[in-house]
Every structure is written in C-alpha cells, then in structure tokens.
C-alpha cells in the first residue's frame, strides 16, 4: 500500500494557498507552520538544493549566507499578501537554477552570488508558504514554525553535506554531492512541469 501512496504524494496538485487552521493552540500552530515547510516538496526541495549548493560553495557556506537567507525570509513574509498563485513556481525555479549550478559549475567562483541566491530562495519559499494570507490572518506561532523549520532543515542538510565532504576529502565526495544536486534539479524540473501543466482534466 505504501508503494502506491508515495508516488501520489509526490505528484503536485493545484498551486493553491495553504489553508491554516485558526483554532489551534500555540504549539499546534507552530507545528502546523513547520509542517508546511517540511511536508510540501515544492518548498523543501528548493531548500535542500540550497543546502547542497552552500556546502559545495565553501566549508562555512551556510554560515556566510545565513544573514541574507534570514533577511530574504522576512521579506518573503512581508510580500506574501501581495503575491498571487504564480509565486508557487518561483521556489521551484530558484531550486532548479541552484541545482544546475551545483551540478556543473565551480561554485567557489560565484562568490558574492551565493548569499544572493540564499536570500532569494528564502524570500520565495516564505512568500509561497504564506501566499495570499494577510498579516492579521496568520498568527505569530505559525510564522515562527515556518521560520524555524526552514532554517533548521536548510542548516541540517548543509551540515550533513559538509560533514561528508570533510570526512571523505577529495573529488569523490564532491562528485557525489554534485550528483545529488543534479538529481534534485531533475526532480524540480519534473515538479515544475507538473505545476505549470496543472491537474489533468
């Protein structure tokens, strides 16, 4: 049964705004916000791609890009009430670009562009997660859940890649990380194609 359900979970549906509950307590609302980040492939996949890219960029890539990533998330939350359903495609596009760059380009040469990518990805993910919701409609606990989950997930994944690259120092580990980035890019291509095409009639 699980083998039948998993492919259905990964198939994107219509790009509708996330419906948040309003009656949950603070802890439940926090978990709900975190679940949006961790439970939606269109949000977690771009963050995973960013994590791989930052780890490939340099050893302290996540730390160096974190300020821009945080600022981008705040901007994304502020812009969320102003964007339309098209914002759902933007994190996928940023993830696809980052995945392709991580797979084929020497990221250490991109230098200043990496924090910019981190900021843009953070903004796109938060804007897509909160798309269409006003400032008063979504409580602080839900926003905190989104914020914490996005940061912990990205930092944890970047940390795992960093440990692998440091433990198995050499080209083999870097090639493996680049292959992982190419897989993420390929998944994002398919996901973006399904999202653009919309549900089958």
Helix content: over 70%
Overall average pLDDT: 85
Percentage of β-strand residues: under 5%
> What is the ordering of alpha helices and beta strands?
HHHHHHHH
Rg, Å, rounded: 17 Å
The N- and C-terminal alpha carbons lie at a distance of: 26 Å
Q: Unreliable runs, pLDDT <50, ≥5 residues?
A: 1-16
Main beta sheet: none
Number of contiguous helices? 8
Number of domains: 1
Tell how many strands the DSSP assignment holds: 0
Structural class: mainly alpha
**Shape annotation:** globular
Signal peptide: 1-17
Transmembrane segments: 35-56, 63-80, 86-105, 112-130, 142-165, 177-197
Keywords: Membrane, Signal, Transmembrane, Transmembrane helix
Give a structural overview:
- With 201 residues, the protein is mostly helical.
- The chain has helices spanning 2-10, 26-39, 41-57, 61-79, 89-104, 113-129, 140-167, 171-197.
- It has one domain (26-197).
- Helix 3 (41-57) packs across helix 7.
- The radius of gyration is 17 Å and the shape is globular.
What's a concise summary of this model?
Keywords: Membrane, Signal, Transmembrane, Transmembrane helix. The protein is mainly alpha-helical. It has helices at residues 2-10, 26-39, 41-57, 61-79, 89-104, 113-129, 140-167, 171-197.
Please describe the topology of this protein.
Elements: H1 2-10, H2 26-39, H3 41-57, H4 61-79, H5 89-104, H6 113-129, H7 140-167, H8 171-197
Helix pairs in contact: 2-7, 3-5, 3-6, 3-7, 3-8, 4-6, 4-7, 5-6, 5-8
């Amino acid at each position: 049964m699980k083998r039948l359900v998993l492919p259905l979970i990964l198939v994107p549906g219509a790009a509708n705004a996330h419906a948040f509950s309003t009656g949950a307590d603070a802890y439940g609302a926090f978990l709900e916000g975190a679940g949006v980040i961790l439970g939606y492939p269109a949000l977690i996949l771009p963050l995973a791609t960013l994590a791989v890219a930052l780890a490939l960029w340099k050893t302290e890539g996540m730390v160096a890009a974190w300020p821009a990533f945080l600022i981008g998330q705040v901007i994304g939350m502020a812009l969320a009430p102003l964007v339309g359903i098209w914002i759902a495609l933007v994190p996928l596009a940023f993830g696809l670009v980052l995945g392709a760059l991580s797979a084929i380009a020497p990221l250490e040469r991109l230098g200043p562009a990496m924090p910019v990518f981190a900021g843009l990805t953070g903004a796109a993910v938060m804007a897509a997660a909160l798309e269409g919701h006003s400032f008063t409609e979504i409580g602080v606990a839900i926003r905190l859940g989104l914020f914490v989950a996005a940061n912990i997930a990205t930092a944890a994944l970047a940390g795992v890649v960093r440990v692998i690259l440091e433990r198995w120092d050499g080209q083999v580990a870097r090639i493996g990380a680049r292959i992982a980035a190419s897989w993420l890019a390929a998944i994002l291509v398919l996901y973006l194609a399904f999202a653009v095409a919309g549900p089958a009639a």
